[in-house]
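Run log, item B.
One chain of 226 residues. Sequence copied directly from the ordering sheet:
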Amino acid sequence: MSKLIVRSTIPSDIDRLLRLQASVYPNITPWQRDHLVQQLEVFPQGQLVAVLGERLVGCASSLVILWDEWSDEHNWSDITAAGTFSTHNQAGFTLYGAEVFVDPRLRGKRVGHALYEGRRRLCRDLNLRRIIACGRLPGYHIHASEMPVELYAKKVLWGDLTDPVLSFQLREGFRYCGIMKNYIPEDDESCGHAALIAWVNPDFKPDVGTLLQRPAKIADNQKGTA
């Protein structure tokens, strides 16, 4: 049986990533090829793929931000600069999860877990304070006529309801922090909303700065021994 591997994204992955994303989100406008090229140029460490044998089966994309600049209401397009990641800021202490998707045929096979673990490893390696993301709520449209989105999220937290994304993220050790309304307006399943979640790095060392903030020579040496 082929082993699931999480590795850095490389340029030759881009066409397969675009096809996979289109199959995962048929009703949401996909990235453009130049978006993925720019993401790799801006922050290559933050772009991960899951590979099973010869198949590319998942993706996790992230950037680094100064969270204080974005902690109030924001949407996906603004915080990611429409997917170009030009908002990436090496002075930041927060790894922002911009996207995760998994081949629908492999849901339940722990591909998502492997990608989240890859992000946590990156957060530790770079000595970042936390991971923050805004996760879709694809189960909300079923209950939208019965309750506001805040109550839906609480019921997921209480175990009264199960959401395909938020329930998974809670199992992955993320904390629910509230609702970001109109995060992806065209996401009909989530009615445009998202759950703000956070994971705090228990190994963060505040006195040494992040790897991205250190002099290039030191960072290069540490990369070689990581």
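Observations after the first pass:
- Helices lie at 14-24, 33-42, 76-79, 111-125, 140-143, 149-158, 166-171, 216-225.
- Residues 111-125 form the longest helix (15 residues).
Flagged for discussion on Thursday.
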